[in-house]
Amino acid sequence: MTLTRSEFRRIDDYRFEIPREGAMRVPGVIFCTESLLRKIAEEKVSQQIRNVACLPGIVGGSLAMPDAHWGYGFPVGGVAAMDVEEGVISPGGIGYDISCGVRLLRTDLTAAAAKPRMERLIEELYRRVPSGVGGKGSIRLRRDEMKGVFQGGARWAVERGYGETADLQTCEDGGRLDGADPGLPSERAVDRGRDQLGTLGSGNHFLEAQEVEEIFDPGAAAAFGLFPGQLVVSIHTGSRGCGYQVCDDYLRIMQKAVHRYDIALPDRQLSCAPIGSPEGREYFAAMCSAANFARANRQVITHRVREAFGHAMGMAPAGLGIGVVYDVCHNIAKMETHEVDGRKRKLCVHRKGATRAFPKGHPEVPERYRLVGQPVLVPGSMGTWTYVLVGTPEAMKATFGTTCHGAGRMMSRTQAAKRIQGQALARELKKEGIIVRTDSYRGLAEEAPFAYKDVSEVVEACHGSGISRKVARLKPLGVVKG
Amino acid sequence: MPPIARSFGYRVLSHTAEVIVEIRAENWAEFYRQAACALLTVHSPRPANGTLRKFRVCIDAEGPEEALVSWLNEIIYIVSARRCLPRKIRIVSAGSNFIEAVLFGAAFGREGGIMKEVKAATYGDLKVRRSAHRIMARVILDV
Fold it and tell me: Which residues in chain A are closer than 8 Å to B109, comparing Cβ atoms?
């Protein structure tokens, strides 16, 4: 059932429809340019969009963001909103790395002033934030402490001295998702997470020192505390082994639920249960627990970043003005109210590799940003830009308040590693003024910039379609690579 | 798609964002052993040294697909939570929907042993096919 490009119907310059047919309950809609569509069409993404469109209770459309690429079950960059009464919740619609996300930290420093100490800073960050596959954190939690993390998220970390109360004010959900049941993640999930708090992990996760290179929207940038030439830090990581295990545990439960509730599925990875069923409610509460682990993880890393800055810059961290611009996740299901066909409906919005992008005035946007809109953090590949965007009213109408999450991979890891060796890539990046520190040069090569789509093209598609608006562009100065 | 690694009983292929493992064997015990070997190749090209620890694994599933995914995820758990890289795999008994095995693995640290983190074996596009003389499967690993 693979579609050809002719089977996409152009709606406008930035939207292409996969018409409803067969078991599809809604059409598919891809938000992208013609050029991005070509890349998306090369994979089986359109088939996955169609499969998601078959799920019970799906509303509006099976959506794909401009950075969409093939996933397992749901495409990465996929968005599906389900009616809470009639719809299903699917762990595959969130992914294994539950609440994987990005946190942006601002500083009072300029990149120019920090440049002489940049090598030292990256070394300190590398030393204090374990990365790579075998990386263990310095915190090892008991089962009861893990329950505290599952319940409290970033707040748990701040209460234990890992950060400041002000950090929470500009985190999505205040750094903690309601709805967690800390008793639900399995012993295995606890085992896999107990020594991973404050660690980056591997793959495309990173910690990056960046310079605010260009401001597109001075008003929004000022509200976010960003200015040209400023030194900022991006953290990209998630719930680590804990989240992977929660996803795996519940996929197994959902396989049985599919039979119990007689749900016809085109792909087993889409296994699901009605949102209101015991299985559905349990998964949501376990997912919230893992999401809170991810938020605590980024909070502990924030604390380590402050320590690293203090040592590298030879100043007390408090004097460096390090604060959270925003913390947003891109793998999650959330209960939200949206207007569909003129009436408000409570929906379970699945975002897998897609970022929430709420507009100004929305009650879930932190008070500090309510006149501007929610910051959206879109990291590019290593060596290219990260973008700060802002949510829009158009996103609420078209994508259930959602935009892209990154550049989107287009080359396999093996292909990338064949094209360049890690050491050579590190040297190339150094010539461009980017310092790299990693445990694995092989892993570095696999994440080479050319393995990803052009993040600027993805961002332009979001800006052009109106599902988010550009605020600032950040240039990398130094990277700790997972 | 050229394979990253192959042996008589498996091939490891690199997909855009994930890794695909193809397995073939003449019986169930060999099938699960080959699947484990393929997974361990993705984790690390070389075995971890050190004192061996023993892990007993028992899986009872509803069918071969669930058995295969559960088996691989069991090994991923040993690597991730127990921080041990299995070196020897003894299949005690196996069938289309069950496995009883003993694994012996050595601990690894930050500096060596593991090349790639595998998050999970997935059900996406999962296929297990049986003919009179062969069992074949294709499973996607999320890395």
Answer: 134
